[in-house]
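Entry 12.
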Amino acid sequence: MVFCIKRIEDKQFSISVLRKRLLAVILAITFLFCFLVARFFYVQVLWQEELNYRALDQWTREIPIVAERGKITDRNGVVLADNRTAYTVFARSNAVSDKQATAEILGKTLGLDDASLYEKLTKKKASEVTMAKRVSKEKIQALSALSLDGVYYSRDNIRYYPKADALCQVLGFTSIDNTGTTGLEKYYEKYLSGKNGELLYETDLVGIDIEGSVATYLPAENGYTIELTIDYGIQEIVESALKKVMATSSPSSAECIVLDVNTFEILALANYPSYNLNEVPREDISALNKLSRNALVCDVYEPGSTFKVITSAINLEEYYQGNTRAYSPQYVFPSSRTRSVDGTTVKCWSNHANGKHCNQTLAEALNNSCNPCFTDMALSLGTDTFYKYLSAFGFGKKTGIDYGGEAYGLLLPQTAVRNCDLARIGFGQTIAVSGIQLACATASAINGGYYYSPRLVKRVYDDYGYIVEQAKNETKNRTVSEKTSTTLAEMLEGVVRDGSGKKAYIEGYRIGGKTGVFGFTCANFTI
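Predicted 3D structure (tokens):
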């Protein structure tokens, strides 16, 4: 009886083990089947395009069809960056019967060193080699008449700038491969570059054309057109004025930016010295870096007295908000000759001889650009209040302009600011700003307090007029109130009409501005 029970238990154990083994085998087969299905799916579907390309590449030779780089125009359609046709010469070394003779003929026809061409033809690592780039149409016509075996060519593009040095630091330039290197050419490369096509010919295993083969044409996709916010008419005037300044005053550099205060669209932007974009000095890297640098966006400087516009705006806004530490427009600042702050003496540029302008209102302080008055405002408001507005006006951070390499500016950490530092910031020292930062802050101070991101590009569209990207005019933040802007605008008009900016006055126009050691900030309010 015991023996029977043991036999039954052994049999049940064997069946259990068998079931487990059978389940393991089924799971293994199922896993293998799923893996094979997944692999087939990956190869047949997901990997299909690449495998087709590899197969095509093995039994065809390609003549590239270069996409036309997108044009760059001003807001009125004036072409600022265009293309000219050139050609690139290729050779498939396996198809060249007499490499030495071919190299000599190519060298003579193209005006190149035949020894270097022969070296290219005898390289074994590449079946197809580029013999020459940017070849003229006349040379290509001469080459076509020779019908050299294994030698062919394709159309290429050379970037061409119809206005030569106009807007050179903004537009930037391309490399020899027509890729954006600096400026907007680089920033908007993804839109301008386009996508190259190909003309495919069937060949045998060593790359020789198969007789009677049919060519396959894969069209190129041209780059998009970039329409700038720039008005070339205004740009011409600006550049002409800067050239005159350079000729008459011999400064180390001169810059100007024209900004629409209601949209922050940049209507003109120029830096001098400049250079011809069609003759980029690529051999002299130091000179090229200096000439191609967009100083208004990428460099910083102490704004000096032009910053007093911002200090005035902060003071007026706090006054209208009821801050008793702010000064009213009617307040008369006493004894404007000097101030002493932490042992540092702040002087007015004028000695106020005979008591002239010794006591003055805010408007008069702007007219006369008197440092002690702005020292009073900054110290009275305090570091916390002043820095709150500096942030709102965009100092110490990027404006968001659509251009690479924008500077942040230099702003002392708030916790490190002493009274003497705050006093100097009030009249534009101990702070460094970029030209675009100051232009945007000033525009915001007189346009009702609206701060936008400045723009160089208005829209991007294709050959059929379809708009790919449209610039949006969205308010980033508010800086001051309408009342503050109105009051400040009237005061800045006085600077041009009666004060230090009289040379900018034009009869029949309402122009406001503020002079400084390094420049002049100006706004045309109405016509």
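Annotation: The chain is about 40% helix and 20% strand. The radius of gyration is 35 Å.
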